Amino acid sequence: MDAYAILWILAWSGVISVLIFVLTGILGQLLPLIEAWCKLRSTFREGSERNRSGDDTLPRACTDAPTAEPVQSENARSAMSAERNGAAESAAPTPPSHQ
What we know:
Largest sheet: none
Number of strands: 0
Strand content: under 5%
Shape: flat
Order of helices and strands: HHH
Distance between the termini: 91 Å
């Protein structure tokens, strides 16, 4: 009977420790989830207020962002410049010669 009680106590303490671990993980994720929900809700509210006022301008952060040039390889650049100059056939790379 003593072994049964000890096993019962050990089993339930394991279950309780797993539940505490899971609850800690859930509560750790709950605060960022609530913050994201509040940010999303305020974004939609600001968008609906902008639609009611008829102001279609973007926020300043969206319009002042610098645009980046697309990255291209040297072969692509030379091919594009050759196409612009009318020499598209010469822009193709020549195969290496095996001598």
